[in-house]
Amino acid sequence: MAMFQEFIQQNEDRDGVRFSWNLWPSSRLEATRLVVPVSCLFTPLKECPDLPPVQYEPVLCGRPNCRAVLNPLCQVDFRAKIWACNFCFQRNPFPPTYAGISEVNQPAELMPQFSTIEYIIQRGPPTPLIFLYVVDICLEEEDLQALKESLQMSLSLLPPNALVGLITFGRMVQVHELSCEGISKSYVFRGTKDLSAKQIQEMLGLMKPAPAGQPGRPPAAQEMHFFLCRFLQPVHKVDMNLTDLLGELQRDPWPVSQGKRPLRSTGIALSIAVGLLEGTFPNTGARVMLFTGGPPTQGPGMVVGDELKTPIRSWHDIQKDNARHLKKATKYYEALANRAAANGHCIDIYACALDQTGLLEMKCCSNLTGGHIVMGDSFNTSLFKQTFQRVFSKDYNNEFRMAFGATLEVKTSRELKVSGAIGPCVSLNSKGPCVSENEMGVGGTSQWKVCSLNPSTTLAMYFEVVNQHNAPVPQGGRGAIQFVTQYQHSSTQRRIRVTTIARNWADVQSQMQHIESSFDQEASAVLMARLAVFRAESEEGPDVLRWLDRQLIRLCQKFGQFNKDDPASFRLSESLSLYPQFMFHLRRSPFLQVFNNSPDESSYYRHHFMRQDLTQSLIMIQPILYSYSFYGPPEPVLLDSSSILPDRILLMDTFFQLVIYHGETIAQWRKAGYQEMPEYENFKQLLQAPLDDAQEILQTRFPMPRYVDTEHGGSQARFLLSKVNPSQTHNNLYAWGQESGAPILTDDVSLQVFMDHLKKLAVSSAA
Amino acid sequence: MNLNQQPHMASPYAPPQPGYQMYPQPGYGAPHPTQQYAPYNGHTSLYQQGAPPAGYSPYSGFATKTYAANVLSDSFSSSPPNLGQGRAPPVSGAPPVSASDSYSQYAQGNVQNGPPSVPSQPQRPPVSQSYAPATVHPGTQPTYHQPYEAPTTSVQQITGHMAGMHIGGPAPNLAGSTYAPPPSSQPMSSAAFTSTGPPNYTPQLASASQPPSSMSMTPGPPPSMYGAPPTSQPSFPGAPTPPQSAFAGVTPAAPPVSQQSFPTGAPMSQPHYSSVPTSSSQPSMGGPVLQQPPFGAVPPASAQSQFPGAAQPPVSQPSPYHSVPPAAAAGFPPPGGATVTAPPRHPGMQGPPFANQSMSAPPASQPNHTGAGMPPGPPIGGVQGPPPQPGLQGFHPQQNGAFGQMRPPQSGYAAPYPGQQNFGIQPPPPAAAPPAQKRLDPDSIPSPQASETQPVQKTRHRIDPDAIPSPIQVIEDDKANKGSEPFITGVRGQVPPLVTTTFQVKDQGNASPRFIRCTAYNMPCTSDMAKQSQVPLAAIIKPLATLPPDEGPLHLVDHGEGGPIRCNRCKAYMCPYMQFIEGGRRFQCSFCSCVTDVPPHYFQHLDHTGRRVDCYERPELHLGSYEFLATVDYCKNNKLPQPPAFIFLIDVSYNAVKSGLVAVVCEELKTLLDHLPRESVDEESRIRVGFVTYNKVLHFYNVKSSLAQPQMMVVSDVSEMFVPLLDGFLVSVGESRVVINSLLDQIPEIFADTRETETVFGPVVQAGLEALKAADCAGKLFIFHSSLPIAEAPGKLKNREDKKLVGTDKEKSLFQPQVSFYGNLAKECVAQGCCVDIFLFPNQFVDVTTLSVVACSTGGSVYKYSHFQAQTDRDRFLNDLRRDVQKPMGFDAVMRVRTSTGIRATDFFGSFYMSNTTDVELAGLDSDKTVTVEFRHDDKLSEDTGAFMQCAVLYTSCSGQRRLRVHNLSVSCCTQLADLYRNCETDAVISYFAKHAYRTVLSSPTKNVRDVLVNQCAQILACYRKNCASPSSAGQLILPECMKLLPVYLNCVLKSDVLQPSAELSLDDRAYLRQLVSCMDVAESHVFFYPRLLPLQKLDVEGDALPVAMRDSEERLSRAGLYLLENGLNLFLWVGSAIPQDLLHNVFGTASFSQIDPNMTSLPVLDNPFSKRIREIIESIRAQRSRYMKLMVVKQDDRLEILFKRFLVEDKNSSGGASYVDFLCHMHKEIRQLLS
């Protein structure tokens, strides 16, 4: 077991890949019986400090429908200067530049440690990065001020040659022209009228670069450039102007009468942003950054009317089919997102408001294009400010941690086909020999577009073993998968990262043990969770839970050791031991439970769950709980109500929240001010310890979590209480008043009950 | 005579009758059926002779004299056969009595040679004939036109008969009535007339014998003025006899003088002549007739009258007015008679000729006929020539009616029909001819006549332009009579001084004439009366007129929270006419008679006269005009209004930038913004301003004071306009001064390199409208626009100028907007209180018709600067702009005119919109805008109480205060037509006519519009003649004193560019003028139609009085002179080619005529009193007008002179407009036709 864990870890570190199974069942039938599909979490841009990119282009297999990249798994005939594609077995000659190749002089891509390798493509002109700010000006003065400052600050963080543009919106939508001197100029659009991309370009004067009547002047490139650039200018040229412009932004001047929401034309603003980029910089990396402080209230894409007496839709309304604008708006934003995605542009949404802002409807804009969604209470919070700053964070090479316009292609060896992907991607509808008919997630293709990537962006890829039972794979055979990710690096280079991995085939009959021990329960939990969340987007909550339970029971039946109808005899091997617990917490998580969450929150949580890497995803599923006390160093404790003790300080990380919880006694001490007394220095340190740890997490996480400092009995303690396993409740009386733990006032089942039921069902012969 | 008659007989009879009948029908048909026919025929024939008939119809237009000539010729040609005779007639020469041939010859001779022929003829005869003809023609011609054909023959006959004919003809008509009165003589005359008519025809034949009968006849007729005619007719029936009678009549008329004439004329022509002579007096009428012919020469008319007078004078005097008329009547036959009368009036006239006599007579007659005096000199022609004028003048004074008639015929017709008429009259011509020619000669140079045949000229000449009513004279008289005393408004129904007179007003309970002018200050009590008189009842209201400092401002009355006190039923506001009853506890409304309780806080005791004790403390109880402070109930949405806003929308397309417009506007706005209208109590204006530029997209500007730099916001979505910003768009000038200046500095730079040539317009207005909507205030848009909006957007237009449509039935479509978009938009603007002013700077067609719809419906103005170039047009534009921005105005106004029970405001003219039939909605109302309201009876009015009207205007002041301005006016009511005619204002009538006609061109062909106008005026004058003037010969043109200028002014309206465009005039120009006139006040429309022509060469450099204006006729320009002409829109300085050196040097600083730069727009500043004074005058004239006039220097014989000549409205113009003289003749003819 240890062997596999190590192997898994190595593979993840090197390739950014975690498979649910690290030995693959060799036949289709067996594979389906394993319940958890052969699948993986793939982090295309995983940061690999020891992976210097190579400055040449990859060598491709010559077969038209293969085009696999030369990799360490290929067989090479150094003398004949020929290599055999390990996917299609085509024999390919090396290109002339490889003339000097030999056993001792191998190119990097043939070395085993370069199962992941990155190529830099030199072809084509460098295309600048584009940042288009779409700013809501229907904000409170304070919020707007904070936002303006953040935006101004961001100018200094942008790559100097990046193009930047500004669209503001409220009742109207203004596209600001940045090139003019003196008077600032903007194009204004009505917030209620949907315009086609062509109309938008016409109205912005982008269609006819030169007004009629200029005889003999060809539409010179320079002129084109000018027109293209009126709204998008290099940061270094306009940062002063733009800083001033941002500084002068006024709140939307249109009066908002009492009982009304401000009119906010988010839909049109986005449409114009998309249209503008579509017309000027198709297929160039671009980020549309939407900053909004409330729901769209007019025009296409409106989420709620401007009457305050009509509240914005809740899950209740949605279930009752009472959300008037939901379908229309969703459809509208989906169409926009697809247009943006088709052009390789991504849309970020920074929504800061106390109420909902329509993320439910708009989420697809980010989900489909790889953009970020950040949700906060106000632009004037560190949560937003820090998070926004972190968008422009740089890696150890001092390069932005962002990549654009990526296409991810998957190639598989013959025994495998790809069923689909789940993550911030859209299908490119590329049919090929390795595409399975059985779709899971976004399927039916072997290529996906990921408009924006960062090093933690992780996609779940699902495969299908297609090898038939009666055609066994030869002993020692390996299956291979190649991920080819082409993207625009933040340095504007085009790059191609190729990851080729292989796993052994195993015969279920004879090697069940091995297969079981090759199970990666963490990865599997996340992969199954993604499937569940993916379903949850389109299905009713209970159906998804039922499906999830069913899968769990089947897995337990398959791999558990038990006597029929004897729950007490049920045992799971080490490699699966944590899996049910993950499922227990997943069932309670906001990804599947909408109770107590607004539709926007659910969308927000799901958005992040669908793109974070395995570690973060696990934290989301099952938050981490640390305990600080005088009795020893900080220790992780069970996410259980029994961990909540008066003399402890708890630090819980749910990814979205960081909660520091002071036990009853600690809280009293703190209130009494002992930490101020020199003789209680240790208490002060104890109080400080979780803060420091929290700080560390806050420093690195994107988006920045909500930071909660609370204590026993505090209202904010609910964040903790809602997460822990309710092992003690008002129902199990024996816990009342006991020293250990705190009862949770809930009717939710505890892990204990859940496990009991699971065992019962797993061993039941009826199932 | 005999000869003539014979001729007539010969052909005549057969033809005549037909012809007559024909005529009759047309003209007389209604009046006197068959019987009349005879007479009429006679008349007609006479007229026909005027025959102009043939000519006329064609010329109806009055063509110029030249036409007349043609006409003559035409008629001749047409009637050729007859002509023989006909000519003879024309010949009136016939008069010569000689055979028709001879006549014809004469006629021709007369006509053409007029003079010569005359010679042959008896001197007078000719004269008289001429008159007769002239007059006759005039009168008859119109009607006859149709007839003419037939007439032609008849004409000839007539002509032949002329003498008789004329006499007869005229007589019948006028004579009948008027003459009859004239007494015995008249009777005669009348008889004569009637008879005459016939006479001519048959008459002539019988004439001799008939006369007698006619004589008898006449008597009969005379009695009943009208009756007379009939009688006469009857007589006619007896064709022969009638004629005779006619003659007789003539003779009768003649008797006095006529006899003599008769003698001469004996038979046919003589009658005329003779009659003329005889006519000299009423009898003259008769006589006059003959004479008239002579008089024919307009002046003559007067002169004639005089002459007649001379002879007649006595007679006429006896029966003064009538007598005169008689004369006129006599004239009829030969309008001459009329002329005669005319002369009287026109003092000037003629007196000379007749002068003596007439003069004397005139005086007497004047009373009546003053107008009559007219003596249409035409007929007088010969006589007139000389005398007429004098006489006329002299007569004029008299006025009433005489003048006109005579002259008219002569003038207008003479020329036009002229020919024929003249011919008809010809006899006279001959006679007259000589004289006429003489005059002509003098005048000839200028005279249009030149153009045509001499005859015509002669004819024309026959009517001395000086003998017909002179606008200048009237204006000067009014100045002298009324200019010195303040006009006190307390007395009900008094006619205020003319608009050209400077006077002071004291408000004592009626609104100042500066606010309201009426067409009639004595309203007919019944609708029948109103219908009969055809005098329009209208008030021209200028609610926010600027008052001189010593008369204003109006008092502001605050009745507290309850708002102004009003009648419960009709909602009239408290005013001096309200009667307090029951000790002051209630008041009775003077408009609807409803009794309303006086609110406790307003209660006041009454004094012994029943007046409130506080009457003189409260403006609303003793003043005609005052203002109320309105309460929130009077506001839109029951919310007190915001201060209004001004939005400047500037075209920045290529053309606008290139012409320098953009730079000029921006530069000017910087200073102009400091002068926005404000209340006197405010430190600075509370009006907010906003700026927009546009080409095919719109640029809004954020000029919020907190910004360092203005911000431009481009709206490209012109298909659905909206306003991109609110806060920062409309700002207070004081606060945002710096930003605004910065913006105005930058706009020209930003667009300096633009290549955008397409513009939009609809969205521009929408943008302003939306901005005001968003700001929830009223306001005004200033749009500076350069070209036809062809860019794709709502309100897109296409070039539809099609000169081929001009003059066709489809012409009206050119005055209708090509799309309905702007009409609907205007509606929205009005609802919001958005007034739109449009400044156009077109280089080509911009479709003013369509674009101006918005301005015209919102109380806005349109300014047009074709081919604008910054250097040359800058001053004009900027001055207009300054004035437009600064002038006091109200916003979001609603005007309602309430009237006493009995009349009702039924029609409204001006720049406004009406969504129902009573409320005039004006998005904006400035101090120059007038609204013309027409009243109709719906019941009887009482003579005791008079009629009241109250015009209430609810508006938002420039500071955002809601106010009600109330103007009250009471006028008298009358049961006598004479009172009506004595108390009306011609300038107002003309203003009303013009507005009405200009609106009617939207639905009728312009020709119809002109005809209707002529017709209505003829009816007005005919009604007067029939009911008010003392009996006189039908040939006499008798005009009411108050309306003696009606024909000349009407002619100006008819010839105006809208109704009768010259070929080079663009559709845009016409549309522009059309909408301008609709909201002109009386002073503006007056000078617009009758431009002011000031001689400068003999300037008194010391004094500050303006030189006395001159009549607008080229003949009066001296080659050595320097003249300034202005009409409120154009300002010309005409330089004669023989201008003296020193003048040249003093004014232009150049040594020779050829060195004068015709392109200069301002005179060089030279340091000599002459130059200084001229420039002062120019400045003062400009200051009087609401629009700045660019100075154009016109050198004699330069190409620009053509343009200039269009403004010499007494001359005929190149596009077919008649000269004053011709038109007067035409008018006379129309009148006569109506009377018969």
Automatic annotation (TrEMBL), chain A:
Q: What is this protein called?
A: Protein transport protein SEC23
GO biological process annotation, one example: intracellular protein transport
Keyword set includes Metal-binding: yes
Q: Where in the cell is it found?
A: Cytoplasmic vesicle, COPII-coated vesicle membrane; Endoplasmic reticulum membrane; Cytoplasm, Cytosol
- What organism, scientifically named, is this protein from? Scleropages formosus
Q: What's this protein's family per the entry?
A: Belongs to the SEC23/SEC24 family. SEC23 subfamily.
A cellular component term, taken from the record's GO annotations: cytosol
| The entry's keywords | Cytoplasm, Cytoplasmic vesicle, Endoplasmic reticulum, ER-Golgi transport, Membrane, Metal-binding, Protein transport, Transport, Zinc
Kindly list the residue ranges recorded as spanning the membrane.
Answer: none
Instruction: Domain (Gelsolin-like): give its ranges.
Output: 634-720
Q: Provide the membrane topology annotation.
A: Peripheral membrane protein
Q: Which PANTHER family match?
A: PROTEIN TRANSPORT PROTEIN SEC23, PROTEIN TRANSPORT PROTEIN SEC23B
**What does it do?**
Component of the coat protein complex II (COPII) which promotes the formation of transport vesicles from the endoplasmic reticulum (ER). The coat has two main functions, the physical deformation of the endoplasmic reticulum membrane into vesicles and the selection of cargo molecules for their transport to the Golgi complex.
From TrEMBL, chain B:
Source organism (scientific name):
Scleropages formosus
Please provide, in alphabetical order, the Gene Ontology terms of the cellular component aspect for this entry: COPII vesicle coat; cytosol; endoplasmic reticulum exit site; endoplasmic reticulum membrane
Cite a single GO BP annotation. intracellular protein transport
Ranked from the top, the taxonomy reads:
Eukaryota, Metazoa, Chordata, Craniata, Vertebrata
List where Polar residues composition bias occurs: 33-48, 73-82, 103-114, 446-457
Q: Name one Pfam family in it.
A: zf-Sec23_Sec24
Protein name as catalogued: SEC24 homolog C, COPII coat complex component
Where's the Gelsolin-like domain?
Answer: 1113-1178
Task: Report the locations given in the UniProt record.
Answer: Cytoplasm, Cytosol; Cytoplasmic vesicle, COPII-coated vesicle membrane; Endoplasmic reticulum membrane
